[in-house]
Predict the structure.
Amino acid sequence: MRKAKRAKGEKYVSDKTKNDVSARSLKQVNCDRCCLRCSSRVTEEQRQVLFDTFYSMTTWEGQTAFIKQSIMEYEPKRRTTQADSNRKGHSRAYYATVREGSHSNSVRVCKKMFMKTFDINTARIHYALNKEKSGCE
């Protein structure tokens, strides 16, 4: 029962600490200074639909698949040297699929808006993408 409530984003009692964990909710975000202008491209109603869709998936694996399909990894456009192994090996683009009338559109958003729309953290994103790379399903 605890696992099901956690997957749905509902309030539950932690198994280890016995503390109440609050329910997930859509977080406010201000992307006025963002170069992608996410706030003007994705409305609060569209974000709420995305949030509801994400937490209507009752399994962790379904949510992980949703995260994987919403993030695209690609090679950085510019590198200083090829031999420098301390540089990052990839960049990420985050997308939100919004519905406008009868058709849906994939809109690029910043990482901050992506995380606050689904009320997830960076570790959840890394888990989803690393699970894909390791081949575990």
Notes: The first helix runs from residue 2 to 8. The mean pLDDT is 84. The longest strand covers residues 91-100.
